[in-house]
Specification:
about 220 residues, alpha/beta, D-Maltodextrin-Binding Protein, domain 2, 8 helices, 11 strands, about 25% helix, about 30% strand
Amino acid sequence: MITPELDIGAASRIVVPSGRDYDCCLKAFEEIYGVAAPRFDDRRLRLRKDAWEYIRVKGKDVPAIVAEGYADIGLAGTDVCEEQIPEDPGASNLLYGAIGEPMCSFNLLLPRQSAETLNARLRDPEAKPVLVATSYPNFLDRSIKRAREADSPLNIRVSPFRPAGSAEIMPALGVSDAVADLVESGDTAIMNDLTIGPKLADVSPSIVWRAPNRVTQREIS
């Protein structure tokens, strides 16, 4: 999805994510574009390197900051992009594309004792849908759509309850049958008596930029 529409040489401000995506996103950016990005080794949130100013923000804030024109390009995980940037190109002024190897995956997590039954229901369109809670409902909806298009439909109903975190506890609370969450080592799921179910998507570093000739909300107002 990286196209000639993205000219990083014309950028002056880049927002990078704090937290677990930080190192992977910067490394992928350096490798793809042949640049040397600075590293935030202390509490500073702004650094300058060559022609660019780098700003460190929460990963979930990256798309909005770029969309509103406060930065020229941003780095974030594809999970953030899939959740926040509309699938319809006409519904947003943002574009994004993966730029590196997967950092983790987006998986269904199933209670260990009912995993076999739930896996059978996932594959059976006539069975009761598996109720899935997630902090990424849009990402989950897209994953379900892609599975359907690949002739591997998932019999899922997305829970209206959206946990802000600690999704692994939702089945034990009775909120849902299963959860969809990001998985790196899988240790948290295992410690909470969950098994790692079907992979819904890979999550990779990505770059976010504004589509040419589309104004920001700030410019409209």
